[in-house]
Amino acid sequence: MKKKTSGHSALGENTRLAHLGHDPGSFHGFVNPPITRGSTVLFPDSHTMATRGQKYSYGTRGTPTTDALCEALDELEGSAGTILVPSGLAAITVPFLAYLSAGDHALVVDSVYGPCREFCNTTLKRLGVTVDYYDPAIGAGLEALIRPNTRLVHTEAPGSNTFEMQDIRLVSDIAHRHGCVVTMDNTWATPLYFRPLDHGVDVSMHATTKYPSGHSDIIMGSVSANAEHWPRLRQAQLSLGICGAPEDSYLVLRGLRTMGVRLAHHQKSALEVAQWLEGLEAVDRVMHPALESFPGHALWKRDFRGSSGIFSFVLKVDGKERFKAKAHAFLDALSLFGLGYSWGGYESLALHVDLSDRTICKAPETGPVIRLQIGLEDVADLKHDLEAGFTAAAAV
C-alpha cells in the first residue's frame, strides 16, 4: 500500500523533496526505490503481449526506477509527463526534433546554451529547419520576428554565461497567439526557483546533471511538457529510442532529496561572492540577476523565487590583445576553483567564457568574461582563492 500521495503542493519545498517519487509500500518498505535494470520484460500470455496490457513492456519504455524520478519531476514542474534523456543537450534536441519539421522556422534566444546553437546551425539546418536568434530583451518586439511558418520559440533565463533575463510570460503569450510551442531551458533555477509551465511555457528542459544530481557524477537530462504537448514529446522519445538509465535515475532521485538545502547554500554563498566582487577595482561588472545592479534584476525579482550558484564577472583589462593572457593567468592561479565546464555540483569551478558564437549578445569590450560556479565550500576560502587569481592577473 502506497504511503500518502496527495497534498504535496501545500507542503514546504524540502518536505516535498523528501517525499516525491517515494513509495516504500511498493518495495517491501524500503525508503528508496531499487534500481530496476533490464531490457526484456515478460508477459503472462500472448494476449497481454499483443495488447501491451501491463505497465511495463520493454526497458526503453520505462522501469520502476525511471518512473519514480519522472513522477517526482512531474510534481515539481506541474507537468503532464516527463521523459528522461542521456544528457542536458539531449533535453533540448529531442523536443526540437519532436516539434519541428522540414520547412519550419524557429526562434531561439541569442544567449542560448552554446551546444544548442551548434545543433540548430548544423543538424536542424540540414533537416530543412530555419533558425533565427533574438535578443533576450526584445520583449514585445518578438512578434515582428514570427513568420507564418514559425513553429517554436526557445527561451533560456537567465541566459548561458551572461545571464540575461527574459520576460517569459510575455514571450509565451506572443508565441501562443501565433500557434508556436514555447520551450525553456530552466537548468539555472530548477523548478524550485522557477516553474516555467506556470508562466506559459509548454515544455521545460533541464540538465539534471546539474543541481538535481548535485554530485558531479552523472550525465542526464529531463523534459517535462504540459498536457497539450506531452503526447508528441512522448512519441518522439519512443521513436528515437532515447531513454534515461536506471542507475542515473536513482542517483538523480537521491540528489533531489537534498536539492533544496544545497540550493539555499549555493544561493547564499554565490550572492556573497558576487557582492564582494562588485566592490573590487579589478572587476568591471558582475553578471548576476539577483544583484540590484544587474539590468534584468527587476524581471528576476518579479518571477523567480531564488538564485543559484553560477554567475559571471568581467575582469577589467586594458586592450583586447591582453584579454586571453589575463584570463588564463587568473584561472591558473586558482587552487580551490577547478577548471571545468559543468556546474551544479558540490565543488567550485571557473572558466573563461567564449562568446564568439553570439550574433546579438556579444562579448564585452572591457575585459574577458569569467564564469564562476560557487560550490559548497566556505566563502572565506573561496574569496582567498579568487584574490590569488586577481594578483596573478595583475602581474601579467
UniProtKB/TrEMBL annotation:
UniProt organism field: Rhizobium helianthi
Keywords, in A-Z order: Lyase, Pyridoxal phosphate
EC class (word): lyase
Name the record gives this protein: Cystathionine beta-lyase
This protein's record includes keyword Lyase: yes
InterPro entries assigned: Cys/Met-Metab_PyrdxlP-dep_enz (IPR000277), Cys_b_lyase_bac (IPR006233), PyrdxlP-dep_Trfase (IPR015424), PyrdxlP-dep_Trfase_major (IPR015421), PyrdxlP-dep_Trfase_small (IPR015422)
Catalytic activity entry: L,L-cystathionine + H2O = L-homocysteine + pyruvate + NH4(+)
Enzyme Commission code(s) on record: 4.4.1.13
Signal peptide (from-to): none
